[in-house]
Amino acid sequence: MISVEGLSVEFNATPLFEDVSYVINKKDRIALVGKNGAGKSTMLKILAGLQMPTHGTIAVPKEVTIGYLPQVMILSDNRTVMGEAEQAFEDIFKLQARLEQMNQELAERTDYDSEDYHQLIERFTHANDRFLMMGGTNYQAEIERTLLGLGFSREDFQRPTAEFSGGWRMRIELAKLLLRRPDVLLLDEPTNHLDIESIQWLENFLATRANAVVLVSHDRAFLNNVTTRTIEITCGQIYDYKVKYDEFVVLRKERREQQLRAYENQQKQIEDTEAFIERFRYKATKAVQVQSRIKQLEKIDRIEVDEEDNSSLRLKFPPASRSGSYPVICEDVRKAYGEHVVFQNVNLRINRGEKIAFVGKNGEGKSTLVKCIMNEIDFDGKLTIGHNVQIGYFAQNQAQMLEENLTVFDTIDNVATGDIRLKIRDILGAFMFGGEASDKKVKVLSGGERTRLAMIKLLLEPVNLLILDEPTNHLDMRSKDVLKEAIRDFDGTVIVVSHDRDFLDGLATKVYEFGGGIVREHLGGIYEFLQKKKIDSLNELQKRVSLSSSPTTSSKETESETTQPSESKLSYEAQKELNKKIKKLERQVAECESSIEESEAAIAILEEKMATPEGSSDMQLYERHQKMKRQLDDIVEEWERVSMELEEAKG
Q1: Which family does it belong to (predicted)?
Q2: Of the four, 65, 458, 491, 513, which is 20 to 30 A from 339 by CA?
Q3: What are phi and psi of 334, to 5 degrees?
Q4: Alpha carbon of 331 to those of 384, 514, 542: distances in Å?
C-alpha cells in the first residue's frame, strides 16, 4: 500500500537515514524499533505526510487513508467525550447535511420533468448509497464499543473532556483514530497513557480488526502480542525482519555477530593495505602497485556496526540509612472529591524491603494514593510514614516539570550539593549525556532524554523508600532493563505505579489492585495476578474463588483465596469441565472464522458488481451490501468474544 523509495533525511547536514527503501503491505503489523534518537518518530511523521524527506519518495495510493497518533498532541476541550469521539465520523455528518439539503430542495421544487431535477435525484441517490456504505446508520454503537474498550464508562460519555486528565484525553484521540478505520495506523507510544486492561483490549483490536499497523513502543509484551514484522532503524539504515520482537532480538544478535566478523576482517584488510602503501610509498619500482592499492582503499565500502554502549546507564541507587519495619501503614484511608469516592477503607501495611506494584484502570486512585503518601493532598483516615523513612519520588509529570531554558548540566548543577557537584559530568555520562549532550537545552530533549534527566535528579539524594509513578514512559527498552535491574538490587522499599507488564515481571512481589473504590492485595508477581484475574472470570471456577468483601485483605486471607486457582491444581471434575469448555470454544472459534471467510468472499463479489456501470445504480445491491456488512460486524464481534474467552480458559 505504501512504498518508500530511496529515503534520506538530514538534520544540519548530519544524515539520519540514507537511501532507505521498504514497502508496507495490507494487514502488515510492523514494530519500528531502534535506540532513542535513531529516527523512529521521524519515520512515522514522514509516513504520515507531516515531514518531508531530504531525498526519496513516499508513494501512497490516492484511496489509501492514514491515521497518525503522535506521542504528544494539543487536545481540544470544547466537547463532551461522545461529542469528541463523533468527530471521527465528520465525513458522515457532512454527507448527512448534504442529503438533508438535497432532500429539502427536492421537496420544494416542482420542475419534475427538467434535466436539472433528474440530475439532483441522481446525486441524492449516489450520496445516500455512499452514506449507507460508510455506516451512517450504526456509527453510534461502534463509538460506544470503542470507548468502553478503552476504559471509559457510559457515565463518562456526556462529561466534558476538560474534566479528564491528559492521559484520558489521549485515549479519546486514540478512540477517534481507531473509529476512522484508516488503511494504515501509525502509532507512536500508544500504551503510555493506557492501563493494563485497556492495553489488552487495544492488543486484541489491532490484532483482529485493524488494517495495516506501524507502531513505535517500548512495551515489549505489547509488541510481541500485536506485531508480526520488525523493522530496525540503526546507523541510518533499516533491517527488515518478518518476525515478532522476541524472535527479532535473537536474529539481530546473530546478524550483529556476523557484522562484527565482517568488520574485523575488513579492518585487517584495510590495515594490511595501508601498511603496504606506507612501506613502498617512496620506491619507484612499486609505484604502480602503490597507486593500485590506494584506489582499492578508496573504493572500499566501509562496514558500520551499531555499537552497543555497555558503559552507559550504570544505574545504582546510593546507600541510605535503614528505615523502620513498616515504611507505610494505611488505616481506613478514604479519598473523595465531593460525592465522587476515589477509594475508601484502604488498609495496607508495607514491609521494609518489599517491592510492590499499584495496578488498575486509570482514574481508580493509584496516583491519588501516592499523593496521599507524599502528603500532597488531604484525605480521611490514618496514614503513617514509618521511622526514619526517606522518600524518593518520581511523578508522571516529573519530566515535563524541568526548566526548559536550562542546559542539561545546569539542571543537575542547580540541585547537586556537596562533593556530588565534582562528579556531575561523570553522572551525566552514565546517563548518555556525555560530551556536548550535557550542554543541550532541556527544551530540545526528546521525551526519553527528559525522563532520564528527571531520573538523575532522583538519584542525587540517598533514600530508603522509592515511589515511582509510571517511570518507564519514554524510556527505551535497554534503559528500562537497566532501571529494572537497579530497582531489583535496591535494598530499600519500592512502590511502582506502572502498566508495563514486562517491566513489573520479576520485580514486584506483591500487587495492589485499584478498582471500584476499593484496593485489593494480591500476593505474587504481575503475571500471577493477571492469571488469577483470568481464572476469576471463568464461570466454572467462580465458585472456587471467593473474593473478600473487605476493601483490602490481609496476606493470609489473600493466600488462602488464591492458592488453589494460581497453582491450577484443579480437581478431576473441575479439570474435566474446563476441558469440555475449551473444546466447545474451539469449535465456536472455527465456526466463526469459517463464517467470516464466507461473508468476506460474498461481500467482495457484491462490491465487484457495484463497481460496474449497471451495478452502481442498483439500490438492491447496496442494501444487500449493507446488510452483509452488518452481519460480518456481528460475526467478528462474536469471534472476538469467543476468542478472548478461549484464551482465558486456556490460561
Answers
A1: Belongs to the ABC transporter superfamily. ABCF family. YbiT subfamily.
A2: 513
A3: -140, 140
A4: 8, 16, 30
State which H helix or E strand residue 98 sits in: helix 90-108
Work out the mean pLDDT of the chain and round it to a whole number: 81
Measured CA to CA, the distance from residue 393 to residue 466 in angstroms comes to 6
Rounded CA-CA distance 454/483 in Å is 13
Return the amino acid letter for 524: G
**Which CATH number describes the domain made up of 572-650?**
1.10.287
Q: Does domain 1-65+182-242 have CATH number 2.40.50.140?
A: no
Does 646 have pLDDT greater than 60? yes
Residue type, 256: R
* Tally of CB atoms within 10 A around 202: 23
Q: SS3 string of 279-309? A: HHCCCHHHHHHHHHHHHHHHHCCCCCCCCCC
DSSP reduced 3-state for 476:
coil
438/422 Cα distance (integer angstroms): 15
The set of cell numbers assigned to 220 is 515489549
In one-letter notation, the amino acid at residue 493 is: T
d(CA 373, CA 494): 13
Maximum C-alpha span of the chain: 104
Give tens-digit pLDDT for 180-212: 888 999 999 888 778 888 888 888 888 888 889
Give the pLDDT confidence of 452-489 residue by residue, as tens digits: 888 877 777 788 999 998 888 777 777 788 788 888 88
Question: CA 466 to CA 471: how far, in whole Å?
Answer: 11
| CATH architecture for residues 328-390+462-565 | 3-Layer(aba) Sandwich (3.40)
Cβ neighbour number for residue 479 with a 10 Å cutoff: 23
Return d(Cα 326, Cα 328) in angstroms, integer: 6
- pLDDT tens per residue across span 335-355: 998 888 999 999 999 999 999
Domain residue spans of the chain: 1-65+182-242, 81-177, 249-299, 328-390+462-565, 404-460, 572-650
Number of H helices, E strands in the chain: 21, 18
Question: Whose CA is closest to 410, among 394, 399, 421, 419?
Answer: 421
Q: Starting at the edge strand that comes first in sequence, how are the strands of the sheet with 328-337 ordered?
A: 340-350, 328-337, 380-385
Phi, psi of 70 (to 5 degrees): -80, 170
Contact (Cβ atoms closer than 8 angstroms) between residue 324 and residue 464: no
Rounded (5°) CA angle 516-191-499 = 50
Main-chain phi, psi angles of 286, to 5 degrees: -110, 10
